[in-house]
Amino acid sequence: MKIIKLLVLGVLFIAGANLAQAQVSVNVNLGAPPAWGPAGYSAVDYYYLPDVESYYDVKNSQFIYLGNGKWIRAKNLPTRYRNYDLYSGYKVVLNDYHGRTPYNHFKNHKVKYYKGYKGKPQKNIGYYRGHKSKAHKNSDYNKNKNKSYEKGKKNHDKHKN
Q: Sheet containing 70-74: which strands, arranged edge to edge?
């Protein structure tokens, strides 16, 4: 009888160990920073966009801006900023704030990070193909793309003759 109990206990132990290894990991990418966001920051909740005096909530993928005296959350900036280029505009990373209302510090942000403010140079996380700014023309992405193009062109010309 003791042997049967030990065998059952052993089987349960092995089954439990296998079950623990069978855990599924799901990465849904909620709260992923946008392609136009500054590279090099992994745990950030908000960006402040000085040129449009707005915030971007990374976790909820929403802009927060002042409209009719109230702070509004929306998936897009208001139409008055439709020509604003998020890729070349400066983004202040608010890595010291983790609440729900970054605009409570708006008066300070507006003074410290005035319209036209440029801090340390920034590289974007991603690249926008239709973008024509000097920043993107000089980005590592384009440098590497041009190098591989030139290399491929040389190899093509070499084999052509």
A: 70-74, 62-67, 54-57, 46-49, 92-94
